[in-house]
Amino acid sequence: MLAALIWLGTAAGWPSSVLSLGVVASAMVILEAVSLAMVPRINAARDAGETGQAAFSRLHRISVLLTLAILVLGIGVLGFIAALAAQGV
User: Phi/psi zone of residue 14: left (φ > 0), alpha (ψ -120 to 50 degrees), beta?
Assistant: First the structure.
């Protein structure tokens, strides 16, 4: 998906800044989809009580790290957009 976005953007003559934003935004969407897809497994592990505690801890940790990555990427995108605006691009 990301490779297709880069290929299409390059073929269309998009500036590299637009391509960069598109790639990061796509990565954010993918990470969010993976994080949301994990919710039923996390809930099932939590509902399993003591037997699911290890699975719950692992899945919850992964989910939190994915959410953190999404937030960091989002802050980076906002900073990049602000830098472009400051340059008048």
Answer: beta
